[in-house]
């Protein structure tokens, strides 16, 4: 906690973009202005902070963006911000605008940066989890996850139609980096036969046996959803392995890729981002520092940035028992 009053705040989006970031920026700008603060947009994440790419926002600056994917503030990964010299430049630029509070929408890397920055300088930082990967502890959901999952579901449903028409085995790789939540949620929601994620060790021979057993029952249409960070190294590797074991099977692979990052945010993401953005400003006004605003069991939840950085969520084994039974 700090007893210094914030008067001018900055907001930036950093790391990978996620649908809903604009809704969060809108909420920060309008809540700040409502409470008499001046709000500044820092363009292109920490790189814009270093290059003094900082613009004053008005309430109208964020009109007509709640429904837009991407981020109007642009985002970037900044090598220079890893250096003390880069962070000092960034600090001096914020100071030159009189900015004395910062809200960072991004992933755990961005929180690492914010934590370092606010430990070195007298500018409190509040983090909002903006990442499609949902790999941050301290919030049940992250901004962008729900949209990414729905995009994946939409694509997998379409793949199911063609897989069914041809009685094919389809392997679909989804994003998530080293987290498997997009795969887990989209796999369950599309009725996939198998879901391969890094948090759960897959017995690949059991997958092969189950496909062979299904072949005997003439169930030839199967969907396997693979997280890109899965232990086998993603969909291509899994496909190669299964083709070796089942040379007669008709197997196709689709890598969904960056479509999962884009698009208009879902209702859930717009609400999540609006609530988080609104509360981030209140946090700064209450004198909080170095916390991530999350929502747990529908309640606002504040996690020290140091913990949001390190911890990962757990996935219960029960999910895999359910997938097996529902796909039988
Ligand atoms: P995503 O999960 O979508 O990749 P992220 O926020 O984790 O988002 P990163 O590229 O890891 O994305 O981090 C964004 C930026 O945060 C980096 O480019 C860098 O500028 C800054 N950053 C990350 N880690 C640190 C650190 N340890 N010290 C200083 N700055 C950091």
What does this protein structure show overall?
The protein is of the alpha/beta class. The chain has two domains: 8-144 and 265-308, Rossmann fold, CATH 3.40.50; 145-261, 3-Layer(aba) Sandwich (Rossmann fold), CATH 3.40.50. Helices cover 41% and strands 18% of the residues. The protein has eleven helices and eleven strands. The chain has helices at residues 21-34, 45-50, 84-96, 108-120, 145-166, 181-189, 204-216, 235-245, 267-286, 305-310, 318-326, and strands at residues 8-13, 38-42, 54-57, 101-106, 125-129, 169-174, 194-196, 222-227, 251-255, 291-296, 299-304. The strands form two sheets. Strands 3-2-1-4-5-10-11 form a seven-stranded mixed beta sheet, sandwiched between helices. Helix 1 (21-34) packs parallel to helix 9. The longest helix is centred in the middle third of the chain and has 22 residues, at 145-166. The protein is elongated, with a radius of gyration of 22 Å. It starts with 7 loop residues before the first strand and ends with a helix. The protein binds adenosine-5'-triphosphate. Adenosine-5'-triphosphate binds next to helix 4. Homotetramer. GO terms for molecular function: 6-phosphofructokinase activity.
């Amino acid at each position: 906690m700090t007893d210094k009053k914030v008067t001018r705040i900055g907001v930036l989006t950093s790391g990978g973009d996620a649908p809903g970031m604009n809704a969060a920026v809108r909420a920060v700008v309008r809540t700040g202005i409502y409470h008499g603060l001046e709000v500044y947009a820092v363009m292109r994440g920490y790189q814009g902070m270093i290059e003094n790419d900082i613009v004053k926002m008005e309430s109208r600056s964020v009109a007509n963006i709640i429904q837009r994917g991407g981020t109007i503030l642009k985002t970037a990964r900044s090598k220079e911000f890893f250096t003390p010299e880069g962070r000092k430049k960034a600090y001096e630029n914020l100071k030159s605008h009189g900015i004395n509070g910062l809200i960072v929408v991004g992933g755990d890397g961005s929180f690492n940066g914010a934590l370092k920055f606010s430990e070195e300088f007298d500018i409190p930082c509040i983090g909002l989890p903006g990442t499609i990967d949902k790999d941050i502890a301290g919030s049940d959901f992250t901004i962008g996850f729900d949209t990414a999952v729905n995009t994946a579901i939409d694509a997998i449903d379409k793949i199911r139609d063609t897989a069914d028409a041809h009685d094919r085995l389809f392997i679909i790789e989804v994003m998530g980096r080293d987290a498997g939540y997009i795969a887990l949620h989209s796999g369950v929601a599309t009725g996939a036969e198998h879901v391969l994620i890094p948090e759960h060790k897959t017995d690949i021979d059991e997958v092969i046996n189950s496909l062979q057993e299904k072949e005997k029952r003439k169930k030839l249409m199967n969907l396997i959803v693979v997280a890109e960070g899965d232990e086998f190294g993603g969909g291509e590797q899994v496909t190669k392995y299964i083709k070796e074991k089942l040379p007669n099977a008709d197997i196709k692979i689709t890598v969904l890729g960056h479509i999962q990052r884009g698009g208009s945010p879902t209702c859930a993401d717009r609400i999540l981002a609006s609530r988080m953005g609104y509360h981030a400003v209140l946090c700064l006004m209450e004198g909080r520092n170095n916390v991530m605003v999350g929502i747990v069991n529908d309640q606002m939840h504040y996690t020290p940035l140091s913990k949001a950085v390190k911890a990962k969520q757990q996935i219960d084994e029960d999910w895999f028992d359910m997938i097996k039974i529902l796909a039988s």
